[in-house]
Amino acid sequence: xxxxxxxxxxxxxxxxxxxxxxxxxxxxxxxxxxxxxxxxxxxxxxxxxxxxxxxxxxxxxxxxxxxxxxxxxxxxxxxxxxxxxxxxxxxxxxxxxxxxxxxxxxxxxxxxxxxxxxxxxxxxxxxxxxxxxxxxxxxxxxxxxxxxxxxxxxxxxxxxxxxxxxxxxxxxxxxxxxxxxxxxxxxxxxxxxxxxxxxxxxxxxxxxxxxxxxxxxxxxxxxxxxxxxxxxxxxxxxxxxxxxxxxxxxxxxxxxxxxxxxxxxxxxxxxxxxxxxxxxxxxxxxxxxxxxxxxxxxxxxxxxxxxxxxxxxxxxxxxxxxxxxxxxxxxxxxxxxxxxxxxxxxxxxxxxxxxxxxxxxxxxxxxxxxxxxxxxxxxxxxxxxxxxxxxxxxxxxxxxxxxxxxxxxxxxxxxxxxxxxxxxxxxxxxxxxxxxxxxxxxxxxxxxxxxxxxxxxxxxxxxxxxxxxxxxxxxxxxxxxxxxxxxxxxxxxxxxxxxx
Length: 500
Hints:
The chain is an alpha+beta fold and about 500 residues long.
């Protein structure tokens, strides 16, 4: 029955299209002189008295999302990129030719309206139409207006329908754009230069991650989609720029969950002559600035939890976090003790290393307890080959991660600029690796760049998508990425006709 109704609706739209063409009306217009948004039209109408029409002329355009017909009077809701506005049109106001357009309009069609601000008897801000221009015919009916898109998979796969049906979804992506603008504004006020890095790279590096591999037809060799912009940005520090940043896509060939998408947006920045203490100060100032610009205050509520971004933030070492949240003094534990703990908690390492075991235990026991913004500092040296050893303790590195709501938001180092040590660390990771396919390969060109001399530097990476999740109270990362990666749909094969 549903399939038959759908066929009837499609046939009705097809008939409307044919009639428009027969009347000489272009169903796919080239342009329209739109001078007012729905918001501007509402403001002009709101100041009127009930049942009053202004002499002011306006021009609006958008998609029909609701249509009501009362004989010679039509009401319809027009949705544009800013909101919706009600439009009234009568036979007397638009004339016979334009009135025919109203009769052939379907929900989903685009139309341009010229008219006057008007407030109805019920006090509804509206536009009273004097002329209509048909802009685009929609061949397929929109999802049920009153229920929107309930199928979560359909919302993500057909985001264009999600944006039409859900005003809250549109608001999330307006805010996302603002957040990125505020990040750029902050960094540029701190004299950071925006730069580009290649997304197709002959080597991958800058993070522990499995890459996507592609083949160059021109060069007949493999390339990798960037897992991190780090090594290219630090080449720019070698080249003489003192403060650089990029906001770019990273690609990591890994699983999907509520805070991970294989393609995600990252901000990374590097400053010459800084260390991780300087970067910590920059990080908390950046977050506080963005939150205040977006909300006007330093506190937000995420999923019923109040989070305060007022600086300064708490700091705790990895070892002290394990003492506080897991009652583990890992400095006193032997390798056998650590292996036993990993096994008891069903944690696995492809290759056992003491520092990696400690980091794994921290992830397991401590991360989810860090709700308020907290810098976790001084990681074991085995966790990355790109960081300077900790002053006074060569088993540790000058690295911090920022945790909020139990998630990692940022990663930062006092950057390693000793080429011999860098080459040694690269080779150790290439030989043993944190996980198969996720170890840093030796980037000989980057090591050579360091041999020309890189000044002391501090670097920072922030996951933009998670920031947007937090500041828009979104439950999953798919809610803040317009087109998240989805499992390919299986094509339904048509049943074969039986032979007589």
